[in-house]
Amino acid sequence: MNPERPSNVSKNTNNNQSCAACKFQRRKCTADCPLAPYFPAENQRDFNHAHRLFGVANVLKITKNLDPIQRADAMRSIIYESTVHAMDPVFGCRGVTAHLQSQIARGIAQINNARQQLVQSKMDSKEEASMNKTGSSV
Ligand SMILES: [Zn+2]
User: Do residues 89 and 52 lie in contact, with contact meaning Cβ atoms separated by under 8 Å?
Assistant: First the structure.
């Protein structure tokens, strides 16, 4: 049995609960089901999004040739991308990227503004100090 797969034995009366992918495809979910760790039965929504955007065959194709260590990250990407795409069918992840880029640009502008204020403040205090020196020497 896959250790990542949640155990529903104590929670459900149905010990053979299929994962969301197998439930959708109306097939028996086996212990070695490649999608079960990522699409548990109680999270049908994630599967529906991934299936709508990529299709089950493509999700399996994408993850099949990956190193098993990378598979979980790839599945998280697939789920994230398809969920964002479901929320924003026009821009999808590009909308998230554009929003983050504008936040970065705003942050950089704020940093540059703060640096200019700091430089100006240092110049003002040096000018003030030199005026005080020349004022006291006269
Ligand atoms: Zn399954």
Answer: no
